[in-house]
Amino acid sequence: MHHHGRGHLARATSICAHLREPVTILSSLAIPEQPGVSTVRLPRDDDGTTAVGADAGGALHWAPLHDTGLRERMAMITEWVSTHRPRVMVVDVSVEVTLLVRLLGVPVVVVAMPGDRTDAPHELAYRTAEHIVAAWPQKLYEPPWLAQHSQKTTYVGGISRFGGRRRPPPPAQDRPSILVLNGSGGAALTTDVVDGCAAAHPEFSWTTLGVKGGPWVEDPWPALCAADVVVSSAGQSSIADIATAGRPAIIVAQDRPFAEQRTTAGVLHRAGLAVVRPQWPELADWPHLVDDARALGSDVWDRWQTSQSAARAATLIDEMATS
């Protein structure tokens, strides 16, 4: 499980909650305790002072030469596989771990990510995988690079850690509320920017969660459900959470490798699920953006297929483990 941000963690724990088979999560992140789940804490592979030869001549994404963390990380994975002999491993996400585990003779389920994944390392990982899981709806987004692996790809819909959770009734409010939501994957937005919007548009009630300089909460579900409009980046977990809460949204994609978020934002725009902007809106634009988002309604998010999506992924993984 990748250690960048919290989205991969949320996806993994959501799927684990539905798995029948015993499961172990290997990651550089500290993993919260979860019934039936063991954990292995891996060293980081990106703490070195230099990153010489990281892409191995374009064949890989990240394998820097003489990196102690990388060497220890791969050795721990190899030892764990040799000792525990897993029946299947799910990799979310790493081309290098996918190849290592497959070379050890273990079937691999790869979690796909949106964006331009036509490079040689991604193609090698998808060819190597026994199965591929895409956490979005196939009807809205089937990229050509994944369509060529259609016989072994399952589109399960957006996976949210709030799947199946009851939506609390909306609170009484004297003005429309805007929640500016940011994950832990990094963004340039600060509370100063949001404060400027609030000063220019006091007709809205403005709140932030996860924005630099503002509060962070482990459980944003109540605030998410209470918002009339959510402003967010286009991370996979953020979009799945908004869809699960059924909130009108304004999406401002962040620059990420392989155009991941900008691709997702484009899908949402074409499907009419959210109002999408390429950068933070101008002050004068907010009233009509809020109106446009609210006009879309909340039912449109049903098309992101978050209901039972983690369970669908878990069923597939269980089947792979027992086949």
What features would you describe in this structure?
- It is a single chain.
- The protein is of the alpha/beta class and 323 residues long.
- It has two domains: 7-159 and 307-322, Glycogen Phosphorylase B (Rossmann fold), CATH 3.40.50.2000; 177-304, Rossmann fold (3-Layer(aba) Sandwich).
- The chain has eleven helices and eleven strands.
- It has helices at residues 7-16, 68-84, 95-103, 120-128, 144-147, 191-200, 221-226, 236-245, 260-271, 286-296, 309-322; strands at residues 23-27, 37-41, 89-91, 108-111, 131-134, 153-155, 177-181, 205-209, 229-232, 249-252, 275-277.
- Strands 8-7-9-10-11 form a five-stranded parallel sheet, with helices on both faces. The chain has a four-stranded parallel sheet with strand order 3-4-5-6, with helices on both faces. It has a two-stranded parallel sheet with strand order 1-2.
- Helix 5 (144-147) links the parallel strand 5 and strand 6.
- Helix 3 runs parallel beside helix 4.
- The longest helix is centred in the N-terminal third of the chain and has 17 residues, at 68-84.
- It is globular.
Please specify the SSE layout and strand pairing:
Layout: H1 7-16, E1 23-27, E2 37-41, H2 68-84, E3 89-91, H3 95-103, E4 108-111, H4 120-128, E5 131-134, H5 144-147, E6 153-155, E7 177-181, H6 191-200, E8 205-209, H7 221-226, E9 229-232, H8 236-245, E10 249-252, H9 260-271, E11 275-277, H10 286-296, H11 309-322
Parallel strand pairs: 1-2, 3-4, 4-5, 5-6, 7-8, 7-9, 9-10, 10-11
